[in-house]
Amino acid sequence: MPEIHADVIAQVIALAREIDESTVVGAHDGMRDPAAGSLAARELRDFIGNLTEEEQYSLVAVMWIGRDSFDAEDYDEAYATAQQEATNATEAYLSGIPMLADYLESGLESLGIAPGEADKGVY
Fold first, then answer.
1. Which structural domain range is residue 69 located in?
2. Does a structural domain hold residue 37?
3. What is the pLDDT of residues 45-98, one digit of tens each?
4. pTM above 0.85, yes or no
5. Count of structural domains, the chain
6. Which of 3, 51, 71, 82 is least crowded, fewest Cβ atoms below 10 Å from its Cβ?
7. What DSSP string describes 74-115?
8. Domain presence at residue 116
């Protein structure tokens, strides 16, 4: 099981969704304005950067499971791979992944944790 509490993942999901919403709101002529999401992106990077290494590895593992890079029963392998491949800052890696929130939600569901239950009281 993940070395990270589901509420922490729910917070990352909320912050990732905030980035998506702010870039859409700041859009001009149907184009996304990347600068509009910069504050939200900084908040996401800061939040992830302040997690323990174990929590960061778990977050990456859950995202990989949600992205179908690993199956839920292979969580331990995903975690070990995240640990071994951690060459860049986790916050930089994850903040650059499109659909991060969707992958994390899917990963939670695959692990038998309902994302709706995890994010109660986060917003």
1. 6-111
2. yes
3. 999 999 999 999 999 999 999 999 999 999 999 999 999 998 889 999 999 898
4. no
5. 1
6. 71
7. GHHHHHHHHHHT--S-HHHHHHT-TTHHHHHHHHHHHTT--H
8. no
